[in-house]
Amino acid sequence: MKFFLIVFVVFLFRVNSQEKKLDSLTNDLIKLEEVSVSGSRATNKMPITFSKVSSKELAKRNLGQDLPILLNFLPSVVTTSDAGTGIGYTGIRVRGSDATRVNVTINGIPYNDSESQGTFWVNLPDMASSIKNIQLQRGVGTSTNGSSAFGASINILTDGPSKKAYTEFSQSLGTFGTSKRTVKYSTGIIKNHFEFSARHSKILSDGYVERASSNLKSHFFQGSYFDETTLLKAIIFGGSEITYQSWYGVDENKILENRRYNFAGEMFDDDKLIGFYENQVDDYNQNHFQFHWNEKLNFNWNFSLGLNYTKGRGFYEEYNNDQSLESLQLNNIQIGNNNIIKTDNVTQKWLDNNYYVGTFSFQQTTNNKELIIGGSFGKYFGNHFGNLIWAKFSSNALPNHRFYKNKGEKIDATLYSKINYILKKKLSFFADLQIRKVKYNVIGTINGPNIIDIDDNFIFFNPKAGFNFLINNYNSVYFSYAKANREPNRNDYENGSPKPERLSDFEAGLRIKRRNFKFNANLYYMKYRDQLVLTGELDEVGSPKRQNVGDSYRLGIEIDSSVKLKNNLIWSNNISLSRNINKEFYFKRDGRIENLGETNISFSPSVIAANSIQLFPNESFKIEFLSKFIGEQYMGNIDSAFSKLDSYLVNDIILNYYFNPDNWINKIQLSFLINNVFDNEYSSNGYFYTYDNSWSDPNGNIKTIEGVRYYPQAGINLLFGCSINF
Questions:
Q1: I need a surface site. Which of 91, 524, 530, 603 has the fewest CB within 10 A?
Q2: CA–CA separation, 697 vs 719, rounded Å?
Q3: Roughly how many angstroms between the first and final C-alpha of the chain, as a whole number?
């Protein structure tokens, strides 16, 4: 952090003799802002499938729900919420690929956790209030920093410097004890070169699921210096979260009795439920320190440099019934004639990590060519350990007895080169070559206790190429091929001996853009080797398990369109139809390994659709009716009817009203969001598991038992917000 501050101060106070008008500087600034993310973003000139979401689109329903929920209505997107309200632990899947396979960058800096490869939006509450725009690329997309995208990539650009000074207060309230309070402010541009801004947010929610509460805080600070050729930014952002655990789900019997029931924290005495542990929580803090330097070198060349340090530290605490003393690395206890081998206890499982990364890119733009050369180098250190807080029988334990500890270290280096070249007036060629080197080491013990010893190295070559053809000023077609490779994550190693996965992605699309009509159609075929698919099961801390499945594929078509029917009426919709198949899936049932042949890939619905009708009664009032349909999907890979998650249709209504009461208030925005307006009962997610039962058969025959749990979502629920901008 000291390095970032020193560099920023040096550049902040450098002498600049040239002065330009504020409007001219603002125009230059807008161009320079995009330099940070241009290395990993797609344009309409490229054969890449993508959607873009602006801050204005996010703001209309940004009343406390997490970022994945705000992206719910994009093509091929499925979102989930453990607590049932879209606040707390939420997730996003694109084309059936879970969050570990969706690459996320913030200002070009990788955000995915280095070890789990997941994205935990709960650590960045209300991040949507500090975002300028988001680009979601489906498929492999263009090369980016961090792990390869195997389903999609989400590229986030945070707020740029504000031209004018402002202060903004936002407050929202809703059902299930939900509230969000946000304060934003900016100095505006000072002396044509400087701007400072900040945001503070707090979100509270009781959750739809019992005790699934969230207490979230976040911050965003930014200092900027710029002139006609230079933009420097120092950014500090992050958050803290305390959430009551709600990843246990509800089984098929309990959901009929009480669909809001939460198994987390159950305390038993002689098999009788005596209550729930109050502090069964996840408690984590994460802060990011970024420095960005964007420079216009000359008329054709731009340069960007990004530096980042991320600090994360926290734990999850849980009450355990009848856990073995051996698993806690404690000796058995002899009390009279009784040999005590189990104990009720409370444990904390800690993660203390540090992540350093630097990125760079050079961009050249000419009349017929766009060239980008870039890369990144990152290093991660993670300390994992478990502390025993309390035990009914503590044996030889000292205070804060440590029953496991291990250290992980990961180095990730990427170098890429991209070119988009106009071969003829209407035909352009795109090529993208990436080399990525990964080194991952873990040593120590994990819960059990078991030894963990990982020492793996990978070198991946990921080429991409395609053509884009302009039929006329309104229509274009494209075709692309991309190859991607990626390493297993930490959970994969803990659960077996995983292989790296490989993907060949073929995409072909049509784009039509007219004054009042937009239409996009995309056909894709994603061919995998050793794909790490979700098994449907969870590990002891609620993380999904994965396994290699040999040959598999995803074949689909995505269509989205928007038409302005009248000056005050816009209709938008999208639909994704797909087939997601494991070619030969092997499963051990009743003690025998079977080849099930073709099976459906887990958590991959074949139909995903969304619809939006926007009505503008006048310039100040906007009404939007939104619908989302998710087809049925399997929560496992064996096509068991028991593992099927039913299809669901959810409808929301958003009302936005804007007005300017007087000269000293710039704008007041009133927002009213009705989620699930028809009060449908549905589950957006769940998990499926199997285990062998031989002890109940007198002959010792093995019987495979199937189990399932669901994550029920809230019925009709409301959010009301008011934002005042001075």
A1: 530
A2: 54
A3: 33
